[in-house]
């Protein structure tokens, strides 16, 4: 189908029919069965999740108007073939830009998440028959549908902050025959009258785990959420709620999700001043290690980092601090601006990370109490604080 015909076919809101249940392995055309098969081959669908994914076609939860997320922008997907290929791929599908406001900068604000990430998160949630689940971020309704298929709709609760997104999800769920408990509202606030759930899954990224979320989960229950801090591009955390209402658990790999609305922050702080150049004592590409990001995020609160690949290989990083310092580094050159010597602080933190044994991301964990959250290394007693020397030394 050419692009013009595809655009006509997409004039309505209903997505075109794709071969969701086609036999796996058809040459040339990737099907939903191929996608599920890939998740099985990667070991992401244990127990009953395989049958559940097979029974809930992703296409039923993806509207006609969608965008593909590229590293620097979202591009509109035009034509039924392109739409079907995206739906049957292991890619996130952007379903809303700029909170639905027309003419905005084109920032993704709702999506149907990457299937392998959905499978990983549902696996970490460790559901068994009879558990009550609360999802924060209904989005397209796909995760809610998977949970309904696995547990029965009456045990599934899902909250979405955006009324237009919530309405589309409710319609898609009803068309597919699922009627979970849905609420339009801010998932950071307690769901009135919900009572305690056994599992909570957030499908939008949190900057911190609000204690209000923990208070909705019974002691012994689990919280699975993507966290994104100033220094992190995103990591999953799996917390077990304790008898005293706190929660403790490990980081479980990377996860890039759009932030919870009230947890949005601008990319970088604004910093002014003349630049001072110096040689880099550290390849900036090393900073992109997730273990270092968790370590540095705890050691350097208020410091934000973003990065970009540069032509010919390598990366350029920008770091800024809330006190008004900045530096940018690529290859061997560093420029520092404003207050302080931020790059020196970054390098110092890198050497501390090295002397802690360069721990991998899975060696870090998080404790959340009603006073806030703390990152720890190797065991919950090994809090990584700010300042010097309180984290446990390496091997
Ligand atoms: C990645 S999408 C969720 C994907 C969804 N689970 C699915 O199956 O399609 C993130 C969603 O979180 C929603 N969201 C953001 N902040 C929220 C909040 N405070 N409370 C509830 N939902 C929120 C966004 O509007 C967006 O629809």
Automatic annotation (TrEMBL):
Its EC number is 2.1.1.77. GO terms for biological process: methylation. One of its GO terms (molecular function) is protein-L-isoaspartate (D-aspartate) O-methyltransferase activity. It is found in: Cytoplasm. It comes from the Bacteria. InterPro entries: PCMT, SAM-dependent_MTases_sf. Keywords: Cytoplasm, Methyltransferase, S-adenosyl-L-methionine, Transferase. GO terms for cellular component: cytoplasm. Coiled coil: none annotated. It is an enzyme of class 2 (transferase). Belongs to the methyltransferase superfamily. L-isoaspartyl/D-aspartyl protein methyltransferase family. This is Protein-L-isoaspartate O-methyltransferase. It comes from Streptomyces violaceoruber.
